[in-house]
Amino acid sequence: MEVCENLKKIQEIVTVKARKVGRDPKDIKILGAIKAQPLEKILKAISCGLKFVGENYIQEARERIPFIKEKYPYVETHFIGHLQTNKVKYAIKLFDMIETVDRISLVDELQKRLSKENKFMDILIEVKLSNEETKTGCLPENLFKLVEYILEKGKNLNLKGLMTIPPYFEDKEKVSSEVKKWQ
To answer: What's the structural domain count of the chain?
Structure first.
């Protein structure tokens, strides 16, 4: 299936599901994860109406995000990978939001760099809900401590909410029940 057709199909599904639960579909943002995708395909998706892109890797972002922003300045860029503190200096220049804040040391580095640049950054706290070793994030039992720390020390951070990826289960009901625990 072609990129534009895929995006249109996703938009239609979101519209149907949103209306089914009484939400306005316009309030839901579709974020295209661009990890390992060719630039040509990313630009095609944007030309078809994708307004939010998420990148996992700083190195790939450094090569592609400036080009995307130059061609499509309205596109909002999100960092969706595990952010190392030594890469924060790049992240704050490339992204509109960081969705994977998961520890105090990262908050400190973001705050230090943003303060120097007199810049503000929207963030999400990544919460780890599974025991999967490949997943990262703040453990649920440390969440309130991290929120309090951000609110106290993160003067240049705009905490917008939480991000999580639920554990994988074949049974959709099991996934749903896991997510509902945290609502």
So the answer is: 1
With contact defined as beta carbons under 8 Å apart, do 130 and 167 qualify?
yes
Residues 6+ apart with CB under 8 A from 146: 101, 102, 103, 104, 107, 125, 138
Percent helix / strand / coil, the chain, rounded to 5: 50, 15, 35
**Can you give the pLDDT at residue 183?**
62
Whether this model's pTM surpasses 0.90: yes
pLDDT tens, position by position, 152-177: 999 999 999 999 887 777 777 776 77
Give the domain CATH number at 99: 3.20.20.10
pLDDT digits (tens, 9 = 90+) for 107-131: 999 999 999 999 999 999 999 988 8
Tell me whether residue 18 is in a domain: no
Q: Are 167 and 133 in contact (CB under 8 A)?
A: no
Question: Tell me, what amino acid is at 174?
Answer: K
**Spatial contact of 99 and 124, defined as CB atoms under 8 Å apart:** yes
95 alpha-carbon distance from chain centroid? 10
